[in-house]
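Practice problem. Given the sequence and the SMILES for flavin-adenine dinucleotide, write out the predicted structure.
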Amino acid sequence: MRGERIGCTCISEPEVGSNVVEVKCQAKRTGNLIHVTGQKLWISNAAQSDFAVVVCNLDDGISMVIVDRAGKDGKDNYQVRELRKMGLVGASTCEVFFDGAETTADHLLGKSGGGLFQTLKLFESARVFVGLTSIGIGQAALETAVLYAGQRSQHGKLIGGHQLIQGYLADMATQLDAARLLCQRGLQLLDLGVRCDTQTSMAKWYSTEMAVEIAGKAVQIHGGVGITKEFPVERHFRNAKIMPIPDGTTEIQKLVIGRNLTGISAFS
Ligand SMILES: Cc1cc2nc3c(=O)[nH]c(=O)nc-3n(C[C@H](O)[C@H](O)[C@H](O)COP(=O)(O)OP(=O)(O)OC[C@H]3O[C@@H](n4cnc5c(N)ncnc54)[C@H](O)[C@@H]3O)c2cc1C
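Answer key:
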C-alpha cells in the first residue's frame, strides 16, 4: 500500500482467458509451506514485479496466493518473458512460469477456495480503470484531430470547416463524454460498495470500443499522414485497439449485462 513494492496479478493462462473457472495452475500445501506450479499469460507488470498474486487451485478450490519473486539462494521464485504487442508498448505484458515456487501459508490472500469470488470482485473495479485508460486515449485522439482539422486546408478551406469532418468531431466528442459519464457512475457505485457489475461492464465495453472508433476517425481525419509514424495518431489507434481485450473482452461484458437483465447465463 506504500507503493514500495510492485505487484502483478496472475489470472490468465494459455488455456484460460475469458473463463476464469477453468484455471489450471496448481498449489500444494505441505505444513506451513505452499508450492505453486503453472504458467500464466498476459500478466501486466510481471517483468517489474516484486511479488505476484496468483490465482490457483488450492485445497478448497480456486484461491489467491502471494508469491514473492525473491526465492531461496538469491534465485527468482518465478520466471518472466516479456511479450511484444502492437500497442501500449510502454506497459509490460508477460508470460510467467511457476515451477514449484515456494511461499508460506500466511501468504494466502483471503480464504482458501475464495479466489473465484475475489477475482470477480477485482474485475468489477478493474473494468472501470480500463475504461478510464481508454478515455485518455480517446481524448488524446480527439485533441489531435481537432488540431489537424484546424490546420489542413482542402477545397479552398480548412478541413475543420467541412460539414462531414465536423460531424465526425461531434460524434467523437459525444461518444467520449458518454464513456466518461459511464465510468464516473461506475466509480461512484464502487465507492458506495454496492454490487455494480452491470454498470462497470457497460462502462468497460462502451469506453473501450468508443476509444477504437474515436481513434479510427482521428486517423481518417488526418488522411494519409494519419497512418505514418510521423504523426501521433497512429499510436493512439494501436493503443485503443488493445483496450477491448483485458479484464474481460467486449463479448464477455455484454454476456454479463445480458445475464443480469434476463437471469439466464449464456456461459453455461
Ligand atoms: C494488455 C493486456 C493486459 C493484460 N493484463 C493481464 C493481467 O495483468 N493479468 C491477467 O491475469 N490477465 C491479463 N490479461 C489477459 C486478459 O484478461 C485476457 O486476454 C482476456 O480475459 C481474454 O482472454 P483470451 O485472450 O484468452 O481470449 P479468449 O478467452 O480465448 O477469447 C477469444 C475470443 O473469444 C471470445 N469469447 C470467449 N468466450 C466467449 C463466449 N462465451 N461467448 C462469446 N465470445 C467469447 C472473446 O470475447 C474473444 O473475442 C491482459 C490482456 C491484455 C491484452
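Check your answer against the key. The longest strand covers residues 33-44.
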